[in-house]
Amino acid sequence: MLGPPGAGKGTQAERFARDSGVPRISTGDILREAVHLGTPMGKAAKAIMESGRLVSDDVVIGIIRERLSRPDAARGFVLDGFPRTVAQAEALDRLIDGESPLVIVAIDVPEETLVRRLSTRRICQDCGWNATPGAKVCARCGGELVQRRDDDDEVVRERLSVHRIETGPLVAHYRPRATFRSVNGDQPLDDVAKDIVSAVGAALGVQR
Questions:
Q1: From the candidates 15, 24, 32, 84, which is the catalytic residue?
Q2: Is 4 part of any domain?
Q3: Is residue 2 one of the residues assigned to a domain?
Q4: DSSP state of 56
Q5: Any catalytic annotation for residue 159?
Q6: Is residue 78 one of the residues assigned to a domain?
Q7: Which of 57, 62, 96, 104 is deepest in the core (most CB within 10 A)?
């Protein structure tokens, strides 16, 4: 699932994964857990993440390789936040060579909508869950909601700039594939979810 920061990838990926009975694999969640636990990888990634820049391809590809080797991913999976570069996309193709088709869904949202969403977003300081608007505590674990360090206005615009430069080419890379679809992310969550289900079904040639 592709899209810029604030497009709703995490929410939609978790929903689709849950309904499909497969794991949602988020590099962002894995990295934030490492930062929270203070692991060597977490310490190395912390400064990069807080500045709005991206963690290196080698680190991220290694994380994905390990995660896809676990038994729960054998029936399929939903990737959220990976790949972010063409090099990562090519690495993913090698990792899943010979497996089921890779369906790519790009969520499109206007930039000003993204800035507004991100600058008002709150996450759980304990588990990293993105809160729904107006929530007082985390719906997943009951933890306190805080603003992410990389969600202030200046860093948001930097993150979107990084996305345009470094991850924008992914759409051009994937667009020629028969399994590529794009959906309008600037609509209610339920409508986006329905469009994603339809898009995946169409990409696989299956009635859903």
A1: 84
A2: no
A3: no
A4: P
A5: yes
A6: yes
A7: 104
Task: Say what angle helices 153-162 and 111-119 make with each other, to 10 degrees.
Answer: 140
148 tagged catalytic: yes
84 is a catalytic site residue? yes
Q: Does pLDDT of 150 surpass 60? A: no
The model's pTM: 0.74
How many structural domains are present in the chain?
A: 1
Please tell me the distance from the alpha carbon of residue 173 to that of residue 80, in angstroms, as a whole number.
17
What distance in Å separates the CA atoms of residue 58 and residue 113, rounded to the nearest whole number? 32
CATH number of 159's domain = 3.40.50.300
Whether 1 is in a domain gets the answer no
Which residue would you say has higher pLDDT here, 167 or 151? Answer: 167
Q: CA 151 to CA 156: how far, in whole Å?
A: 5
- Using CB atoms within 10 A of its CB, is residue 69 exposed (0-12), middle (13-18) or buried (19+)? exposed
Which residue in the list 24, 117, 122, 159 is annotated as catalytic?
A: 159
Which residue among 32, 67, 148, 181 is the active-site one?
A: 148
pLDDT value at position 207?
39
